[in-house]
Amino acid sequence: MTKQNKIYLFSSLVFVGGTYLVYRSLKRKQVYNLLIDRIAGGSVTISNKTAVAVLTGQHHQNINSSKPFAQLTEAKKRQFADAIFEAVDGGGTDESALKAEFQSMRDKVAISQVASYYKAKHNETLLDRLEGEGELNTIISIINSKPDVRWLN
Questions:
Q1: Fewest C-beta in 10 Å: which of 47, 113, 116, 137?
Q2: Which of 141, 135, 113 is nearest to 55 (CA)?
């Protein structure tokens, strides 16, 4: 083997080794971030002001209109709030029950009314409670798919 061939071989090995180290470093960061996300329960920061207003129970208070709109009865608010509490209380979250409750509410005003009731009853907002559950992104998607308000004729 000539000196020039040895230089090519050594250069190739250094290049392949360096490429592998860069790949391993990037992959390790991805795995690390995924693990941290899973351990933290998928915590996210919310930039959607409407979702924050809905989950803190303020959205329905911001509806300024002379037109009547659909509102939940106290019994319905209690029913939804209790079902959400049951889904998130205890050792683990019942994700399917939690999603079902939010999907069954017809608009953002209804969810906001339930959030307000939940806060009064349990001394914490739905936003605070759901941030630690790992289902917040799904709940925000459900909220964003709902109309703001249902107007009565």
A1: 47
A2: 113
pLDDT, tens digit, 9 for 90 and up, residues 137-150: 888 889 989 998 88
- Three-state DSSP class for 31? helix
| Residue 90 Ramachandran class (φ > 0 left, ψ -120 to 50 alpha, else beta) | left
The 3-class secondary structure across 108-150, one letter per residue, is HHHHHHHHHHHHHHHCCCHHHHHHCCCCHHHHHHHHHHCCCCC
Query: Model-level pTM greater than 0.85?
Result: no
Q: 102 versus 33: which is more confidently predicted?
A: 102
CB atoms within 10 A of CB 84: 24
Residue 20 token pair: 């592998």
Residues whose CB falls within 8 Å of the CB of residue 148, separated by 6 or more in sequence, listed in order: 50, 59, 63, 107, 108, 109
Written in H, E and C, the secondary structure of 54-89 is HHCCCHHHHCCCCCCECCCCHHHHHHHHHHHHHHHC
